[in-house]
Amino acid sequence: MQFSQDFPDELRLQIQTSEVVSKKVALKQKGKEYGGLCPFHNEKTPSFTVNNQKGFYHCFGCGQHGDIISFVMKTEGLNFKEAIFKLANDFNIPVPIVKAQNQENEEQNQLKKQYLILEKICEFFEKNLFDYAGQSALNYIQNRGLSVQNIKKFRLGFAPDNYNSLHSYLTKSGFNEKELLESGAVGKNQNGQLYDKFRNRLIFPILDKKDRVIAYGGRILGDGQPKYLNSSETPLFKKGSNLYNYSSARKSVYDQKFAVLVEGYMDVVSLAINGVENAVAPLGTAITQNQLLELFKITNDIVICLDGDAAGQNAMNRVIETALPIIKFNKILRFVILPGNLDPDDFIRQNGQKSFQNLLINAKNLSETLFQFESKKLGILDLESKIAPEKKAALENILMEKTALITDANSKKYFTQYYKNLLFEIGKIQINYTKKTTTKPPSILHEKLDPEFLYEQSILALLIQEPKLIDYQDSYCNIRQLDFGDESLSNIKESLIDFIDKKNDYNSHDLSDFLDNLLIDPEIKAKVLRKSKSPISNEVKLKILALKHHHCQVSKQYKEILSKIDDFDTSNSSISGRQKELFDHKTELERAILELESNIT
Q1: Which residues partner with 303 through β-bridges?
Q2: What pTM was computed for the model?
């Protein structure tokens, strides 16, 4: 049996080098590479490295170097053909068998012709975009922030508003009717006449892993339907397996260590030109398991970023059900639901890269997203409110049904445990809530009792109420450089500074939208927007809060030193010197706080 000529390259693309090598070598990840003891010579210190992005292994000790195929040949004692079949069998990849040389040559020629016609179609669309007929399409994308360089990078094009221009061009270029129909861009009506499928549309070429054009997506310009149209499936193009921008995003996915999966082609393009280059999109269909598995070959972390409208909510439910059977302890999904019915294109153009990156950093795990989604469907919007036992039982039932879809034993175990604990906590809250007490029941999701957190929250509130305080500084602190201990509040502060620097003036509505865009906890949002009726100036309040915040940090350092004294020689001058320095500074801060507070009472 003989496989097709390009099948070894397909194996190299589909299988990560570390997956093959780790069967023989205990690998440890070091940044973007993996390291371990060389299997080709005896060594005590690891000098053997594996690079998934570049697809090779290398030993700095003995000089051995190669890819997955040569590794299997050397470690298993196999020839090239045997190694190919072994890899295909180990990773469940079907081997395309060629029965005869003449048949293989014919198929190869046919394949080259298919790629050639698709490339010709792409060039046709690209040229049209910069002609007179494509002026409206060019204006549309330039108004969305794309430069000519961006347009050419993504090879965007335009399909004229008529039925004949493309297939006439291809016929004149020497392609026959069969080849036109197999391209997926030309159709044939009931009367036997050829017609162009893409008309009056902005064209997005879809590329394979080797940057070859395999299909097209088109967005209507005007009021026509459907809004988006894709090439019909061909031997080269499978909607449920390919991803838009996969080949271009691959390097950034490796670098960032996660992929962003969005819904639309324009979302991907807009994110890329604004610095988020690790984004891909499905091809006009719901996200499939094959697409998720394709991404899991190059990363262990996928962030699903969906529109904030009802369609986005429905898409999230479908993605969760699709993903549950394939998640593992080391293959995770996280979710971002955009606020205000925005899509990623709208959001990043309105709010900038930093705000979008902040959403990605704070993306919610699949487990939490599923819980919140199913709670919302049952009308359970507040876990601190009284919840009927019937609803709690219904919630537990649906969560257990979803968890049963998970095939990875460890993931299923801990998902089940997580939901059982959450449901138990809801019960505790209801018991406390029914007691006659003025104490508010504790939040199980946002419990923050640390004074340092409360000071940081109050400082944020003052900065929002009086933005000029961003530039406040004295001998103890500089607000712009103030370090927050809570990561979520620190991200909000940095985004707030960026927001204030970009906007000269804004109102409370702008602020509310800004906080919604950051997906801030409603409790925190209410507190930072609440205006104080105190007669004390905001600047004095800020100075006191900054001093108390600094005092908290110094006190923690001082306590840490005290806790370690028993572990050191008490005569150690450096320890005792640092202890005295912190104590003196702590005392100085206490005096400054007392002095300020005494002046306002």
Answers
A1: 260, 334
A2: 0.62
